[in-house]
Structure formats: structure tokens, C-alpha cells
What does this fold into?
Amino acid sequence: MNSTPTIERRRVGAPLGASRAPRRVAWLAAPRLALSWAAGLSVLAGAAAVVFAAAPAAAAEATTEAPTAAAAPRLCTAYSGVPAGFAPARDGVPNRAGMIRIPAARFQMGSNEGYPEERNVRTVRLDGFLIDRHEVTNAEFARFVAATGYVTDAERARDPAQFPGIPKDQLVPGSVVFVWPKGTEQFDDAYRWWKFQPGANWRHPFGPGSSIAGKDNHPVVQVTYDDAKAYAKWLGRDLPTEAEYEYAARGGLDGDTYPWGNTPTVQGRYMANTWQGDFPAKNLVRDGYKGTAPVGCFPANGYGMFDPVGNVWQWTKDAYQDRHPKDEAENPLVVTVSQPVDTLERPARVIKGGSFLCAPNFCVRYRPSSRQPQDPTLGTVHIGFRTVLRAP
It folds into this structure.
């Protein structure tokens, strides 16, 4: 196989796919950027426009059961968040600490049973590669920042020339955070669950009053696409393509709904950090975590990859298109689209895997085939990433 990704340029038809409609946010007033940030906000909780839509049949979960968390005991809590041998690339040699090998393969990408954007199912051939066993942690990202002095996008003021028309109070350093609803009056508009929070960044995910103290082994969040790329480059690595991520997340179970099979739970145990109960009214926290969990607290898939779904969404390298092409592909990578999502100047990127905010009645996207568009300039409290290393 050819180790160089096959570059695909596709035209995006509907702005956000058949299951969503772009919507403006009152506190984001500029016509262009309102659409840009609304595109990001529409996926913050898993597609606001389908908040009460029926979930895919394959992902339905009985609410009468009360499964338990899968990891017992939780040895993940003892993990420092930094694998042995972790260091930046040296003399052009990438660092491989904390990575697992994914074999070359041919698999069926996508799903005809999930949301519309998961179609079409296509045959994809991939070369082998390495991928992070865990999501990138706060501790790992902190080492990168300490070594390079890197300042994330959320920690910088936005340039009015690049974000024309945005109110001044939204040009300050900050990011978007999830606000747990306190009353049913908020349920009619998913955008009320999110707000721009000055001072929110990877060190303070929910704003100045929050902290990552004691969470070295939790996935880093509030990082944009460029932040994730900068970290990967420091290690001599890259972000995964959508196809690479989906194949690795499947763990060898080609065609199954989840990385562990076809049922949401296994013998009464939760297999990923997601939302239990009716979103957003009540989180029963049956898996043990209201927000992010330490990496590796749930069983690894067949390749040894932890948290392939749930916990936090994962950035991928692909530009977003509203569905997969039907043709077979080798090492595919969508780099440009002729009509970027929601008229973003930079194409939206694909994020994969779902998060702790995905529930059986909303955003049933804790599945390998699930995918969403995300504004590359916008980090959130439930988007993280991991890196890959391809063979030369």
C-alpha cells in the first residue's frame, strides 16, 4: 500500500448535513463568525438541531437497567498521565512513548444504521500506523507547553481583523463551556446549554474559577485544531485521519456498533464515559463520572486503545463533508472542500468518538462510525485529541 494519504477534495452540499440546520447564536452577532461559531456550537452537545430526534436504533439503551462502571478496581486513577519515555522528537526521530500499533487492513468505514452523515459505507484500505493508547492528558500537554512556551488559541485575544463584527467582550481570551440546565425552561434551545466564558482555557476548562489540579491523568480539553497539531508536531507525529481513527476505534470488530460489540453495555457494565439518564435534565452518573474521566478507566478495545469512544471527542485531520463518498479508497484524507461548512473560511474538521455529554436520548455518537463537523478555531470542554505516527 501507499503510505501517503490519498487526498480527496469533495463538495459539501447541505451546510451541516441532513440531520442539522445552521443556527445563529444571540451572543455571537457578526454574520460571518456567528455562522462559524454556530457551526461549532451545533456539535458541542452533539447536534443541537436533533436534540429530541430519535436515536439510531442500534444505539438504543433500556433505561430500566442500572449498569455499573466497567473498571473495577479503577487502576487508571494511579496513572500519572505521562507514559515512560515521553519526550519531544530528537534529531528528526519521532517519540513513540505511549503508542500502540494498528495493523494494515481493509475495512468497512461508516454506517447505514446511524445518523445520515455516517453514510455511505465504503471500503477503505489503510497502511499500518501507531496511535496513542490514551487520549492526550493534561500532564502531557503541560510538558509540551513548559518546553515550548506555547500559548493556546483560547489563551489569546482574537484579532478583530480575523473575526470582524464580533462584540469586544467575545474577542478576549476565553472559550465555550457547557452549563448544566437548572430548569426545564432551558430545554427548548440547546444553545442555552453553552456560553462563551472569558478566561476558559486548558488550564481552567470552565473558566477562572475552575482548575485541572489533581487531573493530570484526565484528557486535555479546550484545545483547538491548531493547538492539537502543534502538540503533535512537537513529538514528530500527526493527527489521525478520520479513517485511521475510526479503524483504530473499532478494535478489530469491523461492522459492529461499538468498539466492544453490538450492545450499549456488557454484562451490566458501562464500557465508556457517557451520559446516563435523560439529557440534559438529569445525569445519573452510573458510570462514575459527571465530566471527564481519567484516561483508561474503561476497558480497552481489541487493539489496546482506551476510550476510543466517550470521555471527549477527538480531533482528526480531515476536512468535513456531509457524508462519505461511495468509492473505495486507500489511506483517504479530505483536505479541502469547495464549499466549506457554514461558509467558514477554514473548513470544519471532523471530530470522532462522542463524549461524556452524549446520552441515549441525545447525541448517540459514542460509536466508531459517528462523526461531527467542528469549527477548527473553537475548543470546548469536551473535545480533546490523540496523535498518530505513520511508517515512513
